[in-house]
Here is the input.
Amino acid sequence: MARISIASAKAKGRNLQKWVVTKVLAALPTLEPDDVRSCPLGSGGVDVILSPAAKRQHPYSYECKARANGFTPVYDALDQASRGDGLTPIAVIKQDRRRPLVVMDAEVFYRLISNDK
Here is the structure.
């Protein structure tokens, strides 16, 4: 299998960050575009920068990871939670000596936090 180039990997990460910015701004229409920004790659800290106003409305911190593979067990767990019964599938995952995490479809998450529920 051919390896992805560094430039392609960075573009994939940058596109995911921009997608998150777009979704946050769409979910919270009272925010201005400058309130939610994508962080330049390679700089330390969070991947999506929130202004103080944005943090008051949306107290979340984002780390974006886009990979060709490597998240398969997480997606498998979410697929297993999808029963077609109209309930929102959620996967709860836990690694040794780490806190449990909740994984859900991002579109559902942004609908949940939207002011236009």
